[in-house]
Amino acid sequence: MNEEEQTNPAPQTPEPTPAAPATPAAPATPAAAPASAAPVGLTPAAVPPSDAPPPSTAPIPEEAPKGPDNLSDDVVWDALRKVVDPELHYNIVDLGLVYGITVRKPDVHVDMTLTSPGCPYGPLIVHDVKTSIGSAGAENVSIDIVWDPPWGPDKMSEEAKLDLGFDMDFDDF
Length: 173
What we know:
- By secondary structure, the protein is an alpha+beta fold.
- The protein has 4 helices and 5 strands, in the order ααββββαβα.
- The chain has helices at about 5, 75-80, 120-135, 160-165; strands at about 85, 90, 100-105, 105-110, 140-145.
- The chain has a 3-stranded mixed beta sheet, covered by helices on one side. It has a two-stranded antiparallel ribbon with strand order 1-2.
- It is globular.
């Protein structure tokens, strides 16, 4: 036997255990499912408890019909609010990244910026802007990334500043 075989033995297969004695049939009353019976992809903690309140029965509001005929500034701004910056986890409108939009049915043009010229998520954000506005009914979406004026926390909405901790006056430091 060489030295390697002595220090790294092959794994042993366990001996089979004897079969358990037969048990009487289970009663016909249903039993609680074991924790391992959670739906595939859900851990037992993700399964709502049995005492959870029932889902809401409030009617779901209907969305405005989508399509180029229904495009408006409000529809485009709403679509842009669905685009979230992956680093800051906030929508690009409240971050102040969108400088302006032009709606000429069925086309939409967006002037926007990024938090920095080297933003690694720039291509993803641009893709998400095009996808979101396209889903709102635009047939053609063009985007200009502009660097003037440069983006800064002063462009953010007051709510975003508060949520992200930019509500401090940095001139006091």
